[in-house]
Amino acid sequence: MKQPGLLDQLYLFPQIAPHVQTETMGNRCIIVFPRFRNKWMQKYLVPRNRSPLIRVRLDDHGSAVWQKIDGRRTVYDIVESLASHFDGDDKYELQISIFINHLRQEGYIRMLSEPAP
Predict the structure, then answer these.
(1) How far apart are CA 63 and CA 41, in angstroms?
(2) CA quadruple 5, 10, 12, 13: dihedral positive or negative?
(3) SS3 assignment, position 32
(4) Alpha-carbon distance values, 111 to 10, 26, 40, 88, 98 (Å)
(5) CA-CA distance, 117 to 111, in Å (whole number)?
(6) Please, how many CA atoms are within 13 Å of residue 13, restricted to the half-sphere of its CB?
(7) Domains along the chain?
(8) In this predicted model, what pLDDT tens digit does every residue of 78-101 receive, in sequence order?
């Protein structure tokens, strides 16, 4: 199946992947997911002094986008709702599309063709 391009993805519904959790620190989001999804790998391959979880801290812009991802809004809806957040940046639409595409490539979100129930 062909991967959606940046323009194609405007009408898809991003949804946070089931294995990903969100923590907040002030107004910023932290994406939390297991180092390995397989329990056996978690037990035997994670070094003793390391956490079995990986945390990715998002900046203000990334957090604003992440908080809008719910599976019911399209990428276009997210872009439109964040216009005031990116005030003064004339390329914010492209930045948000690229960021959402990166989140999909890393497996933090999945793109749905229909809104989530």
Answers:
(1) 30
(2) positive
(3) strand
(4) 10, 28, 29, 29, 14
(5) 14
(6) 11
(7) 12-111 (3.90.930.60)
(8) 999 998 888 877 888 889 999 999
